[in-house]
Amino acid sequence: MLPDGLTLNLVVRELQATILQGRVERVYQPEKQEIILVIRYSGRSLRLLISSAAESARIHLTTQDKTNPPSPPLFCQILRKYLEGSRLSSIEQENLDRIVRLVFTRLGESGEFQNVVLISEIMGKHSNLILVDAATGLIIDGIKRYSHALSRHREVLPGLPYIPPPPQNRAHLLNLDEEQFVRLLLANHLEKKLEDVLMLTLAGIGRSMAREVVYRAGLDPELRLEFCGEYEL
């Protein structure tokens, strides 16, 4: 099951507290859609797993030691070129969307610091892992390459500008007070179930999270918004 935006927000906070400013020692690609970054921080070597597999895309620390192929795939070779020896200078989540940006800083051949951005997009079958030049915004490579033949919105190919996925345009839950929260909910179609309204209105809320919220509130899972009063909201 893919993590929702709120769960991913907690993962990002954990990573910020444990590996931010760490140095990349090694890059592996044990699976076709999965990489592992070995990051040295505070005297420890930690393993960061990033997957773009359709059914299990995710990002988190791991202690699992996987077998790697005899020769590294092309994407792994590119990551080694740009990331090994660099410092992880930033880890940020896009709003509460399932997009995480990891910025790596290294000293270039010219003696100036250079940044590249590794973007983890966790979106089911559209999940991807894309390396971008921070200065130009151009794609260095992606673990999944595709053209307009597969996506009308964008192409993911080396040398092209990075275009982010379409924004969700949903409210940021962590920035709402109670009055704003209720007003947003009531602006929806009243015939919809409350769990559907939560998903459509609030960034970071997936189906499982919406159902859990309704359950913990002690409400009927089939409850429609039109039957919600002051007590329910």
From TrEMBL:
Q: Name one GO cellular component term.
A: RQC complex
Residue ranges annotated as transmembrane are none
Alphabetically, which GO biological process terms does the record hold?
rescue of stalled ribosome
Instruction: Give the UniProt keywords, A-Z.
Output: Protein biosynthesis, RNA-binding, rRNA-binding, tRNA-binding
Highest taxon of source = Bacteria
Q: Which GO terms describe its molecular function?
A: ribosomal large subunit binding; rRNA binding; tRNA binding
Can you say what this protein is called?
Answer: Fibronectin-binding A domain-containing protein
Q: What species does this protein belong to?
A: Thermacetogenium phaeum
